[in-house]
Specification:
The protein is mostly helical. About 55% of the residues lie in helices and about 5% in strands. A hairpin with a 3-residue loop joins strand 1 (about 65-70) and strand 2. The chain starts with 11 loop residues before the first helix and ends with a helix. It holds the Pfam family GntR.
Length: about 110
Amino acid sequence: MLELDTADKRPLHEQVASAIRRAIAEGDWAPGDRLPAARALSQALRVNVNTTLRGLRTLRNEGLLEFRRGRGVTVTRRADERSALLDRLLDVVADAARLGYNKSDVIDMIKTLP
């Protein structure tokens, strides 16, 4: 199922969000699918449930997940494309950081693209 990279230096809640984002992008969860309970996700990822909830809230704010009382957390209809794009952007930002560039440097580079 989901795994976190122990060498990753990002905060754990960002890693949780990225792992779920990647699972959606790879088709493990499709739009309309219900995610396991936060406690089960926490156990699978070996992190605190509050860390998992913070990652889930991040994805909700990005529009990838929907929280519904009584129905749990579900993947939104537009999650496929947005999830894949955000995951690629996170990889670009991480690669840029390894090369000494910050986010604003990446944004400046993107602005110069045709």
